[in-house]
Design a protein that fits this description.
The chain is α+β, with helices and mostly antiparallel strands. The chain has one domain. Helices cover 30% and strands 19% of the residues. A six-stranded antiparallel beta sheet has the order 1-2-3-4-5-6.
């Protein structure tokens, strides 16, 4: 599982989030029930990944020419703007974040003020950064929890998905998709025998996932 100290490089992070979204497309026909989603063209030259556990917690990851911005919200965190006497973003969370990246959070759909941590990496930078935030002793900003949902290995995802989607998840097709942005029709059927393959393919096409044996649908 990922954490703020071992986040992969931006290209690797983008690739992994795209993989997780593709797997969720296959395993869960109902878009509103998916945990991982990815929008390749959320804005011109900007991609958006979202993790939503359906329990009030979320993670947004924006990939832009200026860099990458990660905004997380753990609704049970002591740093939540809802936790204090007055609704307010915890001091320091956005301090130092590049204005060009922060500007994307002005979109109402991204809920800028619902935040318990923010991490960014500008294009050309060699490491991830965050603001100087004073976290009270015993408190938790939710970053380990939420970044941990960016499953680092195929085995991590298969184990997690079996519990979340309440179905067997074979490891081999998960490993193949982690290795390359391509999948076979038979792998889709192996992952979810009940899935309408043509509907899944339309969504996978939109994500840029290559289907290597499309002729099997004929």
């Amino acid at each position: 599982m990922a954490s703020r100290t071992v986040l992969p490089a931006p290209d690797d992070l983008k690739r992994r989030l795209l993989t997780l979204a593709a797997l969720d497309v296959i395993l869960c026909p109902e878009e509103w029930l998916r945990y991982h989603t990815f929008i390749p063209n959320w804005a011109p030259n900007v991609s958006l990944a979202k993790i939503d556990n359906g329990a009030g917690d979320h993670l947004y990851v924006l990939f832009a020419p200026e860099g990458v911005l990660i905004k997380g919200f753990d609704h049970e965190s002591e740093l939540s703007p809802h936790a204090g006497d007055e609704y307010a973003v915890w001091p320091g969370i956005y301090d130092g974040a590049p204005e060009a990246l922060l500007a994307f959070l002005e979109d109402e759909a991204l809920e800028k003020e619902d935040v318990t941590f923010c991490i960014w990496r500008e294009t050309g930078d060699s490491r991830w950064r965050s603001g100087e935030v004073r976290i009270p002793e015993g408190a938790d900003d939710g970053s380990d929890f939420l970044l941990g949902t960016i499953c680092e290995t195929p085995e991590d995802y298969a184990d997690w998905a079996e519990g979340y989607f309440d179905r067997p998840v074979p490891a081999e097709p998960v490993k193949a998709l982690y290795a390359a942005p391509a999948i076979r029709v038979e792998a889709i059927r192996s992952l979810n025998p009940e899935r309408n393959v043509e509907e899944a393919l339309r969504e996978l096409d939109a994500l840029g996932i290559t289907v290597t044996d499309r002729e099997r649908l004929c």
